[in-house]
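Quick one: C-alpha cells for this chain, please?
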Amino acid sequence: MSPLAGKDRAVVQLLLDAGTCPRCVLRFCSVGSQLLYRHPLQDLMKDLQEFLKNSQEKEDTVCLDVADPPCKRLRLEHKEEGAAELNHNGAIPQLPSAGNTALQSSAGRVCNVCLGILQEFCEPDFVKKVCQKVNSADYQFTSFVFSVSLPPQLSVRERAAWLGVKQQMRNLGLPLAKDDIVQLKEAYKWIIHPQLSEELGVPADGKSLFEVSVVFAHPETDEECHFLATACPDCFKPAKNKQSVFTRMAVIKALERIKEEDFLKHFPCPPSSPKNLCDALDIQCNNGAVFVAGRYNKYSRNLPQTPWIIDGERKLESSVEELISEHLMAEFKADSFNFSSSGREDVDVRTLGNGRPFAMELVNPRRIHFTAEEMKRLQQAINDSSDKIQVRDLQLVTREAIGRMKEGEEEKTKTYSALIWTDRAIQREDIAFLDDIKELRLEQKTPLRVLHRRPLAVRCRLIHSMRCEYIDQHHFRLRLRSQAGTYIKEFVHGDFGRTKPNIGSLLNRTADILELDVESVDVDWPPTLAD
C-alpha cells in the first residue's frame, strides 16, 4: 500500500496551489507506486482533492489501493543547520485553506516543477509519435531501453519546490520525516515504459542494446540556472563537445554546494508556473555496436591496409579496410565502423597463408541478426568483388572476444619470406650459416620511415629461426620466424645502422630487400570455420 497520511495535507495543498501537477505532488510525497502514476491526470487530481477534503475532517490515513514496489530516491538537500526560513521576497508563505482552490489552480496549467513532462508527454499521442520514429528508422531489436535527457533547470525547480515545502512544514510546526522525492526520470519511465512496450511489441529491458531516447528542452526557463554560475563559478567550466557550461551535472554539483539562504535569495520557492510546455527536441534511436571478425589475405603489392592519405591527398584509390567495410556497412546498415587487426603490413607487402586476423566494429547498425549461411554469402560477396584480397572465417563475435586478438601480441610469432639482394657476389656457402642461427636478439631503433608517427625508442626483438634458399650470385630468399613487432625490412638492410645486427652486417656486405611476404600470423583467433 502507498499511503498519503494526514501530515501530507500541507505538502499537497501547497504544491497544488503553486501549480504543481498531481504526479509531481505524489513524487514530493514520496509515493513509490508505479501503477498510481499511470492513472489519468484528471483522476489523480480528483483523488488528491478528495484527500484534501477528507484530511480536514480526520487524520486517518487514506490508502490508495495499488501495489507499492520499491523505488530509488533523489536526495534534494544537504543537512544544513540555521538555513533561512524565507522565500525569495523574504516572506514566510502561508498555507491556504483546502477546497476547490487547488483544483482550480493546477487544472490546465503547465507544471511548475516538471514543466509538463509528466503531463502532455505521458499521453498516448506522444507515445505514438515516439514509436512512429522508431519504426520508420527500420532497426532490428527484440527489446529496448528508454532514456531521457532533461533540461538542467529542472533540478533548480525541484530544489526550489522542495525548499518551499520544507519552509511550509516548519512554519506550521509539522514534522518533516522525509527529505527525498521520487526522481522525475524514474516516474516518467514508470508511466511510459508499458505504453512503449505495448506499442512496439517488445519488452523494456535495462540491459538492452537498443536505446530509444528523448531530448527535452525548455527555452523559456533556460536562464534560471545562471545565478548558480555566480554563486559557484568552479562548477561551470567550458568542456569539449559541450555547447553550454550549464550541463545537468554541473547544475547538480552547484546545487550541492550553494547554501540554502543564498539559493532562496535568487529563486522563488515554490517556483512559478511557466507559460509553455517543454519541447521534445529530438527522438533518437541507437543500436549497440555489432562486431565482425575474420582473416584476410592481401595479394597486391600496391594496396595499403588502411586508406593512405597524406596532407588530405589520397595516394592510392583503395585499401584492405575499405574493400571489406564497403560490404559490411551495406549489409548491417551501420552509421560508421572501426577497423582493427593483429598487426599490419606495408603497402608493398603481401599477406599469404591463412591470413591476418581482423575485427570490425559496426556502429549503430540497423540490422543485427545474421545466420551462418548469410555470413558465408557476405564473405563470398567480399571475395568476388576484388582480386586484391580474400576473406575467410567471417563471423559475428563479442566485444570481449576481440581482446583475444590483441592479447600478448608481442609474444606471438610471425613467419616471413623475403627476397634479398646483395651488392657483392655470394655463393651458397656464404649464406649457409644463417640456417644455424637461433634466437638472434636484435636492437632496433625506431625506423626512419616510421619516425614521423612512432616515438623514438630502442626495441629488443627476437629472430627465432632462419632458412635460406640460394637463387644466384646476388639474390637469395630468406624465410624467417620472428617475434611479432619486428621490423623485417630494417633487419635486412640495417637502416643505416639503426638495427643491429642485420643481414648486411652478418654477411659483411650491403644487403637490401626486394620483396616481402607475410606467410603466417600465429594468432589462434578467430575460430576457424568449416567451408
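The mean pLDDT is 88.
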